[in-house]
Design goal:
Elements lengths: L3 E7 L3 H11 L6 E4 L8 H4 L4 H4 L9 E2 L12 E2 L21 H9 L7 H11 E3 L13 E3 L7 H12 L15 E4 L4 E2 L2 E2 L2 H6 L8 E4 L2 E9 L2 E9 L2 E13 L2 H11 L2 E2 L1 H6 L6 E2 L11 E8 L6 H5 L2 H14 L11 E5 L10 E6 L15 E8 L7 E3 L10 E3 L6 H18 L10 E4 L7 H11 E3 L29 E3 L14 H18 L3
Parallel strand pairs: 1-2, 1-13, 2-10, 5-6, 13-24, 14-15
Antiparallel strand pairs: 3-4, 7-17, 8-9, 11-12, 12-13, 16-19, 16-22, 16-23, 17-18, 18-19, 20-21
Helix pairs in contact: 1-14, 5-14, 12-13
């Protein structure tokens, strides 16, 4: 290939598609967008319930696993990451969630100029096309569609009522800076179909002459010359090729992919690289460190007198009805995001803003990928929004085909165990309210016999699983030891930036797709400004 472009964007996922759109918009610069995966023209990408068939599918998923987690009683977890155009926006839960104002204000207080809530809110608004139209907090006419869900479940309405009875107020919008309350999630869908970043940011501009999209092309390292990023080395059709940059290279490969590429390039901790026979060109000991993720605890209830997805999906007639409804109306279970009802709450009175998020679902199963239970079931998954546990992502070989070691280090911090116990107790409090009594709920998992704090801390390790929000492995900060600065430049390397969830110094209070889009939008503006456009 040996082509040359002004900008090279590595990874056509949530951030990369937006970056390619913005960087090519003026027409003055040539842009290459490189993606290891293939096209998103797979029906399960677009049917919302298809996430069930995209995660764990080599066509759309990197098929990563964590290391065995001591905090999860030595279990390893599947760790889905999108390997397809659109990246995780093509396989995720489609929930539109910005987090809390405090998240971004904390970034600013840590010394990251330009990243406070008031400063990032315009980026959220400018890209948004909200079904409610433009107002103080939302935008209309942008590329990123935000819509109501197209389904209804009586059991979820009852759970919502029970939540209010438990002292948590109803809220209309989770995205105005403080998301305390209960409401139905807004989703990134359009007419009952998934709205991914390919549809939003690439398809409308795919014929731009200054944009080149290269799929099924895996970047294995950055080409460095006197500590300047000059290009990328890639594997394409079994061949080793080089693509060069006139201006900047932007890594948008996510919290697993971006540190992997850096380390394969000789940018990282010499102690790690030398053991794998990789020369260190730029020392940066925090690359791959600071991994944060939301661990969900799936509290499951067996119900009576309730209609849930369990019965419909386990019946031939029910399956036919589900398929017919979706075919005719684009509504019903096939239009479902994985979670429909959301709750943000505090685990105890010491918190001023929510530190817990519930994803409530009218279904139940033992683990992701298993069949639904043969009884009416409800799952109240709850996660600690601000975990203190920190993990890492590091390469395990100099061969780019070898998966990195992903160690989230779940529940390693004692405070996270305390919050886990409190969150299970809050789920039980909500279910015990009057609005849920007609269903005679019985706790199926973890089980009502676990009562003491110590028992609940331990059983959290049995029922905990990732909710797919890894961030922080290339965190920005004012210190020279941070991987990136507040302009997302990689310290110690000229012409190289990172724009994805890995730059978050601390995890946002909710689902991480929308914040990642914001990061990309802000990054593109900074890149164009510094390149005098």
């Amino acid at each position: 290939m040996n082509q040359k472009f002004d900008f090279i964007v590595v990874g056509a996922g949530t951030a990369g598609c937006l970056l390619a759109n913005r960087l090519s918009a003026c027409g003055k610069h040539s842009v290459a967008l490189i993606e290891a995966g293939g096209s998103d023209n797979y029906h399960w990408v677009h049917i919302p319930v298809g996430y069930l068939y995209c995660m764990g599918n080599k066509r759309t998923d990197w098929l990563y696993k964590t290391t065995k987690q001591r905090g999860l009683n030595d279990r390893e977890l599947n760790y889905p990451r999108g390997k397809v155009m659109g990246g995780c926006s093509s396989i995720n839960g489609m929930i539109y969630m910005r987090g809390q104002a405090n998240d971004y204000d904390q970034w600013r207080q840590m010394g990251n100029e330009g990243w406070s809530w008031d400063e990032v809110l315009p980026y959220f608004k400018n890209m948004e096309d909200s079904y409610e139209g433009a107002n103080k907090f939302h935008g209309a006419g942008g590329e990123w569609k935000v819509n109501k869900q197209r389904l209804s479940w009586d059991i979820l309405d009852s759970f919502k009522e029970a939540t209010i009875e438990a002292g948590i107020p109803e809220i209309h919008d989770f995205n105005e800076g403080n998301n305390f309350g209960v409401s139905y999630f807004k989703v990134n869908q359009n007419s009952g179909l998934r709205w991914n970043t390919v549809k939003a940011f690439i398809k409308p501009i795919k014929n731009r002459k200054n944009l080149t999209i290269i799929s099924r092309c895996e970047v294995n390292k950055i080409i460095l010359e006197n500590k300047k990023a000059k290009g990328v080395q890639v594997f394409r059709n079994g061949n080793l090729e080089k693509i060069f940059s006139n201006r900047e290279i932007i890594l948008s490969s996510g919290s697993v992919g971006s540190p992997k590429i850096l380390e394969l390039s000789g940018i990282g901790n010499p102690d790690i690289l030398s053991k794998l026979g990789i020369d260190t060109y730029v020392e940066s000991k925090n690359i791959g460190e600071n991994l944060q993720d939301h661990l969900q605890l799936r509290v499951i209830y067996k119900l009576e007198n309730a209609k849930t997805l369990n019965q419909k999906a386990n019946s031939l007639i029910g399956k036919l009805a589900i398929g017919l409804e979706y075919a005719l109306k684009r509504t019903g279970p096939m239009s479902m995001a994985p979670s429909q009802l959301g709750i943000f709450a505090m685990s105890d009175k010491s918190y001023e803003t929510p530190n817990l998020q519930f994803h409530v679902q009218p279904l139940s199963l033992d683990k992701f990928g298993d069949p639904l239970h043969n009884f009416p079931g409800l799952t109240a998954s709850v996660c600690n929004l601000n975990p203190q546990s920190r993990g890492s992502v590091h390469i395990n070989s100099s061969d780019h085909k070898v998966a990195p070691l992903i160690n989230p280090n779940y529940l390693s911090a004692e405070q996270d165990k305390i919050v886990a116990a409190q969150s299970i107790k809050l789920a039980r409090k909500i279910v015990s309210q009057h609005a849920m009594r007609k269903y005679n709920p019985k706790e199926y998992a973890p089980g009502s016999h676990f009562q003491s704090d110590e028992d609940l801390k331990k059983v959290a390790g049995d029922i905990g699983t990732t909710i797919f929000h890894p961030v922080g492995t290339c965190a920005m900060g004012p210190s020279k030891s941070s991987v990136t600065d507040s302009s997302l430049r990689v310290r110690g390397v000229d012409g190289l930036r990172i724009a994805d969830a890995s730059i978050m110094p601390t995890i946002t209070s909710g689902n991480t797709n929308a914040p990642t889009l914001m990061i990309a939008a802000k990054a593109s503006e900074m890149i164009l400004k510094s390149n005098k456009v």
